[in-house]
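A quick aside before the break. I want you to see a complete sequence-to-structure record at least once, exactly as it would be stored in a machine-readable document. Don't worry about memorizing anything.
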Amino acid sequence: MELKDLFIESITDNMKLIIGLYVLFIAVFIATWIFASPQMQTFAGNIAPLNNPQDAGVGPLELFIQNAGGGIMIYLASVFFAIPAIVMVIYNAANISLIGPLFAN
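That is the input. The structure line, written in C-alpha cells, reads:
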C-alpha cells in the first residue's frame, strides 16, 4: 500500500475525530473570545507601547499558517494519544483567540 493510500484511509477512518476536534476548537475559540475580550482590550492598550514595529506586520495569514501547523500536530498526536490532542486543541484555540486581538491592533 502506498503512503498516499494510507493517509487517505487514516483520514476516512478518523473523520469523526477530526470533526469533533474542529467543533471543540471552534467552541473554545468562541467561548474564550466572549469571556476574555474586555480584558484583552485593556491588555492590548497597555502593551501597545512595548511592541516592536516588526511585530505589527503579523496578519491573519501568519496566524492561519500557525494554526494549520498546530492542526497537523494535533492530528498526528491524536493518532497515538487522544487526551493530549484534546488538550492541544483547547490550548491552541485559547491562544489564537487571546493573542489574535493583540496583533490586530
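Two observations worth writing down. Residues 13-104 form one domain. The longest helix spans residues 15-47. We'll return to this after the break.
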